[in-house]
Amino acid sequence: MNRRKFCRTAVAASVAAAIPMLPGCDRKAPVATEADTSLAAISLDGAEIELEKAAIRELGESLTGPVILSGHPEYDSARKIWNGMHDKRPALIARCLSSEDVSHAVTFARERNLLTAVRGGGHSWPGKSMCDDGIVIDLSQMHSVTADADKRRAYSQGGALLAALDTAAHEHGLITTAGVVSHTGVGGFTLGGGMGRLNRKYGLAIDNLRSAEIITADGQIRRASDDENTDLFWGIRGGGGNFGVVTEFEFQLHPFERNLLSGSIVWPVAQARDVLEFYGEWYQGLSDEMYVGPMMATMPDGTGVIIMEVVYNGDPAVGEKELAPLRKIGTPMDDGVKMQDYNIMQTQEDAAFGHGVRSYIKNGMVSEITQGLVDMMIESYKSDPRLAVFTHTLGGAAKRVGESDTAFPHRNAETMLGVGGGWMDPAEDESGIAASRDWYYQLEPFMGGYYDNIDFDGTEAVGNYGPAYERLSKIKGQYDPGNLFRLNSNVSPAV
Ligand SMILES: Cc1cc2nc3c(=O)[nH]c(=O)nc-3n(C[C@H](O)[C@H](O)[C@H](O)COP(=O)(O)OP(=O)(O)OC[C@H]3O[C@@H](n4cnc5c(N)ncnc54)[C@H](O)[C@@H]3O)c2cc1C
C-alpha cells in the first residue's frame, strides 16, 4: 500500500426503537410505538424472524451497557467499522461493559437463533464484526489494559486496541508482540495469530497468550489456559472468533529497551531486483532481533519505490553490523534507520490506515523467497498509488513453535505477502479490487495458505487450517454446537 498516498486519501429509521432505560442510553431516543411490538431480524441460517420488543427491553435491563437500535442517536456511529467498504445495519447492538453483559447477550442471541457478530476493535477487513439484521456483541467499551510488572503480565479486555496494550507494557519497561497499526483491536488480532515487529524475538501474539476469559455459546464464563479448558485454549490461539467471546487476554511481557534501531530504507523501484535478490539470500541468516521486510509501492507523484522496514530489538551496535550489508545495496533514495522510540514505529502508519478508508487486501504465506518469487514480484509490480505489495516478516521464534502446538497453521512460513490497498471513492472499488486481485493472482503460485486476519475474501477455513481443522471442528462441536459464532473464517462443529 502506498503509505503516503494512503495517508492523503484516507484522511480524507427502519424501526422505532425500544430503548431500555439504562446507563448510556439516551432517554430522548425514539421509543417503541404501541404498534411496534416486534423487530424484524435475521436468523443464523438467514431466515426472517421477529424479535419481541419486550425481550429486547429485558435484555437491556440485564445489561449494564446500552442496547442500541436503529433510531438511537449512537446507532450510526456504533455500526461503523474501520473499513469504509462496509455499511451494515444490525437489528440491535448490545454494547457490553462486563463479562456478565456479554454472557447475557450471547444467551439472548443463542436462544433466538439470531445472527451474531462480535466486535472488538472493528478492523476486520471483510467486515465480519458487523452484520445486517442480526445482533452485534459490541466490546468497544471494554477497552482497558493493565500490566503487572512483577508478574510480567498484561491483562487486556476483549475490545481494547493495540495502542493500549503497548502503552500499558511500556509504562513498566516491558513489551509483547503487537501489530503495526495501533488502532487495531487486540481481540481479532490475537485470536487470528497476531503478527508484529517483535514476532521473530517473542513469537506471535498467541505465543505470548497465557490465558483468556471466554464466554462460550452456552453463556458460561470460562477460563482457558494450559491448565484449564486446554483444548479451548489451543483453539483460540489461531482459530479466530469461532469458540466464543473473549473478555480478557492475559499476555506474557518481556523486558524491553524502547529506544531502538529502526526505520525504513527506500530505493527507486528500478533497483528492486538488486534489493530483493540480496534479501532472498540474506534473510536466511538473520538474528531473531532483526525484523526486516520489503514493500513495493508507488508514491503520490508516481515514483515507484521498494522499501525495507527495519526494527532491531537488541544491542544497536550489533544491529548496525547486521544491517550494514543491506545498506550497501544499490543507491537508496532515503535511509531513515536510526535510534528512535519503538512507539514511533508502532504509530507511524496509524493515519495512513485511517478509519473509513475503503480497503481491499489479499495475502498468502511464503515459506521460501525463491528466485521465481523475486522475478514475479518485479514482473507483477503495478504502478498504482492506491496499491502495494508488502510483507509481514515471520521466522525466528514464530517459526520455532511446533506446527500443532497452537491452531495457527502457518508455522513454516518465512513471511506473509499481502497485496492490495485503499481509496476513498466508492467509484474506485471495482477497479481497485480488480487490480489488487490481478496482482495477487500473479504471486499466488509462490504462496501456500493465507493469514486469515489480513484478507478480504478468505473463507476457506477447511483448506487453510490443514491438519488442525479436524481438532478445531471437534472443539467447535463441544463449545459452539449450533455455530452461533459463524461470522469468521468458520469452522463447522463436529457432530
Ligand atoms: C489497518 C490494519 C492493520 C493491521 N495490522 C496487522 C498487523 O500488524 N498484524 C496482524 O496480525 N494483523 C493486522 N491486521 C489484521 C487484524 O489482526 C484483523 O483485522 C483483526 O481481525 C482485527 O481485530 P479487531 O478486534 O480490530 O477486529 P474486529 O473487526 O472487531 O473483529 C474481527 C473478528 O475477530 C473476532 N473477534 C474480535 N474480538 C473478539 C473477541 N474479543 N472475542 C471473540 N472474537 C473476537 C470476531 O470474529 C470478529 O468478527 C491489521 C488490520 C488493519 C485493518
Overall pLDDT level = 92
Task: Report the span from N to C terminus.
Answer: 43 Å
Counting helices, strands and paired strands, the structural category is: alpha+beta
- List all distinct small molecules, including ions and cofactors, that are bound in this structure: flavin-adenine dinucleotide
Strand content: 15-25%
Q: What is the overall number of helices?
A: 16
Q: Please give the radius of gyration in angstroms.
A: 23 Å
Q: Segments where pLDDT lies below 50 for 5+ residues?
A: 1-34
Main sheet attributes: strand count, strand direction, barrel closure: 8 strands, antiparallel
Give helix % range. 25-40%
Q: Overall 3D geometry?
A: globular
Overall number of strands: 21
Fold blueprint:
Blueprint: H1 3-10, E1 38-42, E2 48-52, H2 53-62, E3 67-69, H3 75-78, E4 92-95, H4 99-111, E5 116-119, E6 135-138, E7 145-148, E8 153-157, H5 162-170, E9 174-175, H6 186-192, H7 199-202, E10 209-215, E11 221-225, H8 230-236, E12 245-252, E13 254-255, E14 259-268, H9 272-282, E15 290-298, E16 304-312, H10 316-327, E17 334-335, E18 338-341, H11 342-347, E19 358-366, H12 371-380, E20 387-393, H13 397-400, E21 415-423, H14 429-443, H15 461-465, H16 468-479
Parallel strand pairs: 4-6, 5-6
Antiparallel strand pairs: 1-2, 3-4, 7-8, 8-12, 9-13, 10-11, 10-12, 14-16, 14-17, 14-18, 15-16, 15-20, 19-21, 20-21
This protein binds flavin-adenine dinucleotide.
Flavin-adenine dinucleotide binds next to strand 5, helix 6 and strand 12.
